[in-house]
Every structure is written in structure tokens, then in C-alpha cells.
Amino acid sequence: MNNIPESLNSRIPPANLLQERIILVTGAANGIGQAVVKAMAAHGATTILLDRDVAGLEQTYDAILAAGHPEPAIYPMDLQGAEPDDYTRLATTLENEFGHLDGLVHNAAQLGALVPFSNFDNELWFQTLQANLNAPYLMTTACLGLLNTSKDASIVFTSDAVGRKGKAYWGAYGVSKAGMEIFMQTLAEELESNTPIRVNSIDTGPVHTALRRIAYPAEDSSTLKSPEDVTRAFLYLAGPESQGITGRQFTLDEML
User: Fold this and answer.
1) Strand 103-106 relative to strand 249-251: parallel, antiparallel, unpaired?
2) Are the C-beta atoms of 23 and 64 separated by less than 8 Å?
3) Quick one: which of 118, 156, 236, 256 is 20 to 30 A from 10 by CA?
4) pLDDT in tens, 57-66
5) Is residue 36 a contact partner of residue 202, using CB atoms and an 8 Å limit?
6) CA-based radius of gyration for the chain
7) Which tens digits make up the pLDDT trace of 235-247?
8) Which of 220, 249, 255, 223 is nearest to 236 (CA)?
9) CA atoms of 226 and 208, how far apart (whole Å)
10) How far apart are CA 207 and CA 15, in angstroms?
């Protein structure tokens, strides 16, 4: 399969689309991550909810259980402060609990500050790159063995337009997203020929999230997509319909 369906919006994914799949989603306590794990659980996946916001994780967990979907797992973790050994422990825990991993969605992100490079705080620079670029690298490499034991594994990176074309004042956030895109493409090429793992990114465009509100505090949020509006693209990239598609930089508009 080399092309996406004409319109995912016109297709209703089957209820068992992700049945028996184990999928880890970062940033699962709110926003897009929370909407994605709820949608994936609704389509049969056992989801692993990772975030530093424990209260938000518990709320997401309760909502999934109340809806009658497969029981998720909670893994509290602060990506900004996590060390390499923390990712090794994560992978070991997943192996002991689940034995394999079918999907990894990198959604968590830190905005940093929208200021010129000449005024950018050095510590904030390091923190933003740690959360947005180093963390996905460390988590992915720690989990590659688990993903490789799946018959059909998918890694999805949540991207942004400022990571594909530089924009003034987006500083460490834009640079980290650009680095993530190159990481995605390089990883896709390395894994394409000898593993069942496909790797893609998706720019969702403007979505009503906490990060968006920080970046654009005066924006009329009623004009934006909701997190729930973008979940079908993630279902497609995590599910069997996207087999054979790897190394692609998607936008939500081209998918929906």
C-alpha cells in the first residue's frame, strides 16, 4: 500500500481496528494525546498512558474504563527530566507486562518561549530539546526491540508546520520539531527493509489544545479543530490499513 484512502472522514473504522494491539501514547493526560488514546481504546487497543500529569492520566484511565474499553496502563514519567536509564526501565516494564509493543505515538511536547534567539534562555533551550527531541529518541531506541517483536508495528510522531519550515520566534520548539522530522525519516529508512516497523509523522495543523492557547492566547478557539477531530488520522497510521507506508510527512488536510 503506497497511498492513503481518498478521505478517512468518509470511512468508519471498524470497532476492532486495533484489537489485541498494545500502543503507548505520550502526552496522554490531555489534548490530542488524551483524545488519541480514548479513540484507540474504543477501537480495541490496550493503551499505555504516559505523561507527567498523574491526575490527568487517572482521569483518562477512568474515562476509558467507564466506556467499557480494554483496561489501559498508566506510566507517569517526566520527559523533560528523564535520564537514559529511565527509558530502559520503561522498556523492561513493558516487556514484563505485555511482551511486545505494536505502536508508539510521540505526542508530548513543550513549547518553550516565543522569543528571538538573541533573548532565548539557555536552560529553557535545553529543557525544550530534551522533552521534544531527546525524549522521543531515547524512548524509541529503548523500545525498538519490543516493536520488532510485533507483526505490524507503527511509530507516529506528532509534528508541526514550524518543524518543516522555519518561522521567526519559534526557537527551540521549531528546531526540536525539525530534528524530530529528520529522526523520523532516518529511522524509517533504517527499519524499512528488515523490520515490520513503519515510521511516519503528522502535522495536525491548529488544534484547540493547552499548548496552542499558550502560543496564541488571543485566538478565537471556536475556529479550531478539537483534539477529537484529528484522531482518525492517528487510528489510520497505527492500524493495519497503513501497512507499507513509511517515512512520510503527512498533514491532516491531505488525510482528511
Assistant:
1) unpaired
2) no
3) 156
4) 999 999 999 9
5) no
6) 17
7) 999 999 999 999 9
8) 255
9) 5
10) 25
